[in-house]
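Hello forum,

I keep getting stuck at the same step: I have a sequence, I want structure tokens, and every attempt I make locally crashes halfway through. Rather than fight my setup again tonight, could one of you with a working pipeline run this one for me? It's a single chain of 234 residues.
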Amino acid sequence: MTAPAAAREPAVGTAFAVQGVAMSFGATVVRDVSLRVTEGEAIGIVGPNGVGKSTLLDIITGEKQAKAGNVWLKDQEITELPARRRCALGLGRSHQIPRPFGGLTALENALVGAFRGSDLKGADATDAAVLALERVGLVDKANLNAEDLGLLDRKRLELARALATNPTVLLLDEIAGGLTDPKSASLVTLLKELHGSGVTILWVEHVLRAPCSWSIGSPRWPSARSSPTGRPAR
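Reply #2:
Ran it on my machine without issues. Output:
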């Protein structure tokens, strides 16, 4: 890994920012990407599959370490922090493909977020998990095995597990993917409610339909910068 470039503290009011981040897996996947999202914003990034959108979220959350560049959460540089520490500071994330813990109920899955993501214990963790399920409309299915949930409910559970960590910033990775229009509309309504509660949201998708139904800002992903050939990078 190359030494990080000299960090520039982002402007006051920044929820999170990336500065000149780069990542490659043989071929370049993300190249010199900079992004600043202010507190309380809801921003969408739209681009074709394979150009590095999910990789950017991995870099922000610490699931992958950038080869270059800097990552900020508010006025704190978090470039070198591990993923769990970033989560504890307020970064929540859903994944493109729901990843429930097999053999655990919906409530137990949400409890994992509370225990591991925000370091809550005992009754406090349980309260956070139940509240998260209530916010996404899953509390009536709390005792169902997560593997038995339908696709929409598994996506809601992804959100609940992230919300149980008490995030100030929520990163959404193609959360509407695979859903019918009515189910996608239901999910957008939920996201609007979460945003209205003060959560900053960055939503990446490969189609415009769902983000545009919310009328949030949707800059297209700069594929020429993330993939030097202009083709999907793998």
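The first strand starts at residue 14 and ends at 25. If your local run keeps crashing, start a new thread with the error log.
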